[in-house]
């Protein structure tokens, strides 16, 4: 069991943020000033928004969006019950009526079909006699809502759209960053972000409103007492003290102290998101194999911000409740939570509108079984392993039947990296349906065999190692070894070792080469011909990162494109050789003119994975021995291509 408590979502603040705050404190300006202005500009650029207004919270942004859109008494706003209370609270505060609409069972986002139904229903059935003026969708947990359908409904009925993007930074829907959208007039779209302490980007407390320049300027006027000139504009050298109050505004401005933190968080945002996505991927890969869990849905057309990882418990497979599950996680030093208690069960809304729990059946049912697991960039791989092991162990101990593993064919975990636009996703492989239960207990015998062979190999081949090392040093004086991060068992990263066969400092470039690639050294050419450059991976085998025969470990970006396939194959350690390695022994000769990465991902890798998956199902110790011999003897696979 863990000795230290694993917190749910601590902030990721480092020295840059601290130094910038200190710099602000030492300056003469600590409230809204130049740093807020810079933060607004840089944030708008980061989410591709036409304009941005920094505020004291997301709640303030939601409130100002409604106020500046002129929504008030007599109006209704359609929103979701599966959310934090702030969106519905501000609807109440402006004197409008919230119309709750049940959620989709998959994403738990507001269901566009039910929005349509609610609008078409009579006002009597909606529990209030107000006129719909806006839709307030929440991109729950960081998964964007079905925006095309919602915008279509808004357009049809002349409604504004106020997106609650508290969780969706950065997120993407059909190639558009959340926050970038400006619908054609007359449908105003405004987007609200949160920088609360637990959020993907924090300023301790804070928020941002994005939208068209006109809408943002209207909200800006409301944000600071309704004054037409802020203090920075009034107190600067040569500026006039004069201002006018043009409306009864609020005090929702962000300070330079907060913006100082935000400016540095913004720079790290994509790194934070990548780590969150990696953790989510590992969680999903592990939990999808058990019938006691339902992993989060990720639609093909979105890029998830992974603010929260919400696992759903299949309660019919467990003899404990969700609350007991959470207690057991806490007892084993792991924080967890529930997002959210649906709006309609909170006393204020329940009593005011007379809601019953089952009025929103999907939200009510899913609320009983959701658990948010720790997810933040400060989590180490060990922390992630601890969560996985503990969650599985609790489920195992409280299963109504013995634990069974399951592989769901065709399940997507995360969309391909946005940096890979041209990949033909039609090449996605149909996974064979696994009837057999994948092994979870590693074969001790197999491991002993691998380690003994690898250690023996290292000892016997040491004169060859010395000769190769000398040749490499003699050739260009550069380093003997080359190592690169690859994805290993259970999607954990490790460094793959090789003899260096390319010119120094080519590690950051594509590892794919063509036969006459100028990056390959003279010695490298010889090593590659006989695959001798791969020999140092015997060390990876001894270290437990690899086995002798298994799917070749790939770069993370390739694994991200084929998550289903690797999820299956990397239940085992990756290997030095396998059937696909033999079949594609000289893959560099298969490339044609044009970008290598694209050819590799769309043509070669899918074929390799198909072969590996077939082999993975049927492999035995003796078939692996055959592959090992063929590799050592330099023979091609009998099943090539
Ligand atoms: C979905 C959602 N909307 C709005 C908010 C409010 O954000 P803030 O605390 O910045 O007002 C939160 C806060 O957690 C939230 O989860």
Write the layout of secondary structure elements.
Layout: H1 15-26, H2 34-47, E1 51-55, H3 58-68, E2 75-79, H4 86-93, E3 97-100, H5 112-120, E4 131-136, H6 147-157, E5 160-164, E6 172-173, E7 176-177, E8 189-194, E9 207-211, H7 213-223, H8 231-235, H9 256-287, E10 293-294, E11 302-303, E12 309-313, H10 322-331, H11 347-353, H12 361-367, E13 370-373, H13 381-397, H14 444-460, H15 462-476, E14 481-487, E15 493-499, H16 522-529, H17 537-542, E16 547-549, H18 556-561, H19 563-569, E17 575-577, H20 579-583, H21 596-618, H22 621-633
Parallel strand pairs: 2-3, 2-4, 4-5, 5-8, 16-17
Antiparallel strand pairs: 1-9, 6-7, 6-11, 8-9, 10-12, 12-13, 14-15
Helix pairs in contact: 1-9, 2-9, 3-4, 3-7, 9-13, 15-16, 19-21
Bound molecules: pyridoxal-5'-phosphate.
Protein model, in words:
Helix content is 40%, strand content 11%. By secondary structure, it is α/β, with parallel strands linked by helices. β2, α4 and β3 form a beta-alpha-beta unit. α3 packs parallel to α4. The longest helix has 32 residues. The two termini are 48 Å apart. About 5% of the residues have low confidence.
